[in-house]
Amino acid sequence: MPRFSPRTAAVPALATAAALLLCSCSAGAGKGDGDGKANPTEVRSGQRLTATLGTAKDSRGPAPAVAGAQSGGTVKVANLNDYSHLDPQKIYAGEGYSTSLLWGRQLTQYQVVDGKPVLVGDLATDTGRSSDGGRTWTYTLKDGIAWEDGQPITSEHVKYGIERTFAPGFELGPSYWPEWLTGSEDRSAAVKKYAGPKGGGLDAIETPDAKTVVFHFPEPQSDVPYMAAQSSSSPVRPDKDTGTAYDTHPFATGPYRIAEHKQNQGLALERNPHWKAETDPIRHQYADRFEFTFGKKILNTAQEVLNGRGAGPDTVTTKSEVPPELYAQAERDPKKKALLVAGSRGAYTNDLYIKNSRVADPEVRKAIHYLFPREQARQVLGGPRLGEFATTLSSPAVVGWKKYDLYPVKPSGDIEKAKEHLAKAKTKVDTLTYAYEADAPEKDRLAQVLVDAFGKAGIKLVVKPLDKAAFTNEVFRGPAPYDLWMSTNSVDWPTPATLLPDGYDSRLDALSNGIRYSNPKVDKELDRIRTIGDAQQKAAALIDLEQVVMADVPVVPFLYTAVTQFRGQNIGGAAIHPIYGSVAAADLYLKKS
Amino acid sequence: MSTIRALRADRTGMAALCAVLLFVVLALAAPLITALYGKNATEHYGQNAPGLLSPEGLPVLPNGGISGEFWFGLEPGLGRDVFAQLLYGMRTSLVVAVAATAVIALLGTVLGLVVGYLGGLAERAFTFVCNVLLAFPTLLLLLALSPVVKTRFVDPGENEPVWMQFTVLILVFAAFGWVPLAMVLRTTVKSLREREFIEAARASGASRWHILVRELLPNIWAPILVNVTLTLPGIVTAEAALSYLGVGIDEPVPDWGRMISRGAEVFYDDPTYMVFPGVTILVFVLAFNLLGDAVRDALDPRTAH
Questions:
Q1: Of A28, A448, A467, the CB nearest to B62
Q2: Number of Cβ pairs < 8 A linking chain A and chain B
Q3: Which residues of B touch A372 (CB under 8 A)?
Q4: What is the pLDDT of residue A24?
Q5: Is the pLDDT of residue A300 over 80?
Q6: Is the link from the previous residue into A62 a cis peptide, with omega within 30 of 0?
Q7: Residue B290 and residue A6: Cβ atoms within 8 Å?
Q8: Where are the alpha helices (DSSP H) in A428-570?
Q9: Cα separation of B118 and A237, whole Å?
Q10: What's the pLDDT tens digit per position in A64-102?
Q11: How far is the first Cα of chain A from the last one, in angstroms, to the nearest whole number?
Q12: pLDDT value at position B123?
């Protein structure tokens, strides 16, 4: 009786091995751009992208046309996951902000022309007028703005929308409106004073007529125009507020309205007939429909799009990045390279965080700054597409950003300099711990790169891979027993107002000031800056203070992070939104073949 | 002696034996070979010297960076030497597999022998334990156990010791791996203990120890040997699979499973890198399996074909 034995399997197995060997010849990565010519899709995340304040004239519609844009057709958007929130007062993430512009409008918003953002009035005629030293802010609504059923948007709706941020269930969104309007330290203190629209109107927001909204703040506030651009500053109509159901199907004010939303499967948008282009300086209404699908693996979507198979040519992604497996291939093939959409990931920077309470000696922190192998670390994570090397704490996308480099060092690190600083340290350091979230193998490899560099400087680096929950709990919340970790920081809007005051004040808890940075001089200066009512002055003061903070090396700047997404060959107008850091959906159109 | 003669007559078996011996010698002599070769398994050559890896971390030279200096090329990303990694990865595989197989052979033999001879209550308890262990989801246990071991038993200021990673793997493989051997031996011993020579030994007043060790054990060498030669390659693949999933041996200890996992990540850009660990593990496991097969045929000519 014939039976299967390893011996009979040997021949096909060896044949497979031989075939593998034969097929495995591969081209090398080559020397790259030896001629030094600029790479068209090269990421320029280190460039200044500051959002300036636009005038009332800039705030008039329609939006500047996208060159070559055509009308009609259906744009397909393939993202891995559905949106966790569509309720405007619950959206709190860059890509959600960007995509929700398709159906939602705010008091102000960023108009993007040639990749440069300008903050302009959206529903309001301008970015806001302040009086009383920044304690009172007045907005006037435009004429002709309407809901998807044709009813006009009034000041009452804006007020109601902002009142919702106080209500239970809205803890997920930003807490700035509740804090500012009640003059409270945090949201939980604010909701004790006012608990949402169920308990009646909030006195701090006045609506003298249907067109005027007046905010009264107990403390001077300088950044109201930027906060007014956040999704939580969207109007909500009380009779259309369906409570939790509003989170899957909000009522539209923008160029599109939600035709159908099947959770975790698809989201279809159709044109909103009551949206008037002449009232809107930001959005376009080129495509007839937008069809979002969720659940398909990014690798499959990217292959379809880059190879132009199936629905690929009409497909774009607003959330997903080019998978690392395909990146080098796409970079080498000019046809595929043209389909990559790269840009700065909003105002993010990626830094090596140092627990200052554990590594208390600034000389040791300086040594870490010098030995940190930026180039090797970026190489092992995927290369230049991740962004340009950072020398500053804040991102170039922040108002008032200045380039500075307090301790210049070559990208591959300077071990000798690090040793000099270690020698100056009061107590000898021979072991440091590095914690990281062990969710991807490249993070293990990054840890090895760091072990190597620290080892060369004579420090034994203990690496601690932690699972996601443990990492969030142990490193960010509470007295973490680790010295170093990598983290990205961002600001809630592109001014420095939420960076130093919300993370580098020694009186903050470990949740906010996770590195336990403490400098009494900085605290004092922050107290002074808090009373400044003018946004530009405040930004300038904070940017100057940033250099004082960075002289202490509380963190080691690593990257101004960048993002590389992809679009089908028929998708036009695809560009990374300079503030929100993902493909700006409101500029997309379909090229007719 | 007839067994050895039968084995020597088996050409496939001899070839497999030679391959296995070669692997063992390479693994044992790895430090010597890498010293002569002039590279080690942990240094990041591609990162420390310019011109070897592109800014994205891919080898600049074609075919995974194979050159006179780096015989099997460079690892994408960290830029370690693939040849040295393979040699040391073999040590990792062999240490885990040999240690686990030794524990399995010991546990399985003792339990199978004793339970098969005693029978009764011991046998019923044994069957129950075996059934439980066979039903146990080993992979899930390891996936769940790995982070717990790392966070609970290791001080936050210390690396997870390498011996701990090895011990956990060996113990888990051994804890679940002895069942098939013990069950086979139990049945064999059960039939042997009714045979005349055991009856005779018992009648002549031999102790239980004497019967187990002197009378029964010499008669079950064949199934033990066959089982061991087939278990070992199984553990090599299992260890590689666990490391592939990220719950085996961690960086920076070289490991074939992790090499294959890295090869899968860069397969579109650098397929060469996948080939070395892939082919090595294939040949290694195949050689062991063929050897096991040959040993079985030599010991039991009836199953030969």
A1: A28
A2: 141
A3: none
A4: 52
A5: yes
A6: yes
A7: yes
A8: 441-456, 468-471, 520-530, 535-551
A9: 82
A10: 888 888 898 999 999 988 888 899 999 888 888 999 999
A11: 63
A12: 87
Q: State whether A441 and B258 contact (CB < 8 Å).
A: yes
Rounded distance between C-alpha atoms, residue A405 and residue A591, angstroms = 44
Query: DSSP secondary-structure letter at A104?
Result: -
| Alpha carbon of A379: minimum distance to chain B alpha carbons (Å) | 5
Chain B: residue whose CA lies nearest to A28: B62
pLDDT at A2: 42
With left for phi above 0 and alpha for psi between -120 and 50, is residue A183 left, alpha or beta?
left
pLDDT of A556 above 90: yes
Range from A362-366, A508-512, B186-190, B247-251 that averages highest in pLDDT: A362-366
How far apart are the CA of B42 and the nearest CA of chain A, in angstroms? 9
> Amino acid letter at A56?
A
Q: Locate A307 and state its tokens.
A: 């190879």
B137 reaches A (C-beta below 8 A): no
- Which tokens hold the place of A168? 């239970």
Helix (H) / strand (E) element for B99: namely helix B82-118
Q: Which residues of A touch B265 (CB under 8 A)?
A: 324-325, 441
Q: Are A257 and A272 in contact (CB under 8 A)?
A: yes
Across the interface, do A445 and B77 touch by the CB < 8 Å criterion? Answer: yes
> Which amino acid is present at A157?
H
Inter-CA distances, A383 with A48, A71, A368, A378, B143, Å: 21, 38, 22, 5, 31
Cα A323–A324–A330 angle (5° rounding)? Answer: 80
Token readout for A119 is 């903050």
Joined together, the tokens standing for residue A197 give 């629209």
Which helix (H) or strand (E) is A348 found in, with range? Answer: strand A340-354
Q: Which residue in B56, B58, B243 has the most chain A C-beta atoms within 10 A of its own C-beta, making it the best mutation to test that interface? A: B56
Cross-chain Cβ contact A433/B157 below 8 Å = yes
pLDDT of A324 reads 81
Q: How far is B269 from chain A (nearest CA, A)?
A: 6
Looking at chain B, the whole-number percentage of residues with pLDDT higher than 90 is 13
Closest partner CB to A13 (pick from B63, B262, B282) = B282
How, if at all, do strands A108-113 and A116-121 pair?
A: antiparallel
Q: Residue B1 pLDDT > 60, yes or no?
A: no
DSSP-assigned letters across all residues of A44-86: -TTS--PPEEP-TTTTSSSPPPPTT----SEEEEEESS--S--
As assigned by CATH, the class of the B90-299 domain is mainly alpha
Using only C-alpha atoms, what is the Rg of chain B?
23
- pLDDT tens-digit map of A437-464: 887 888 889 999 999 999 999 999 999 8
In angstroms, what CA-CA distances link A512 with A475, A477, A494, A509, A551? 12, 9, 19, 6, 21
Q: Percent of chain A at pLDDT above 70?
A: 91
Q: How many helices (H) and strands (E) does chain A have?
A: 16, 20
- Give the tokens for residue B271: 């397929």
Measured between its terminal Cα atoms, the distance across chain B in Å is 21
Split at pLDDT 50, 70, 90, the class of A53 is confident
Q: Is B44 on the interface with A (CB under 8 A)?
A: yes
- Phi, psi (deg, nearest 5) at residue A342: -120, 150
For chain B, what are the domain ranges? 90-299
For residues A588 and A572, the answer to whether their CB atoms sit within 8 Å is: yes
> What average pLDDT does chain A have?
85
Q: Could you tell me if A82 and A263 are in contact, meaning their C-beta atoms sit under 8 angstroms apart?
A: yes
Write down the pTM of the prediction. 0.82
pLDDT score recorded for residue A259:
93
Listed range (A574-578, A586-590, B73-77, B134-138) with the worst mean pLDDT: B134-138
Interface predicted TM-score (ipTM):
0.83
Per-residue pLDDT tens digits for B27-78: 899 889 888 888 888 888 888 888 888 888 888 888 887 887 888 888 888 8
CB-based contact A26 B63, cutoff 8 Å = yes
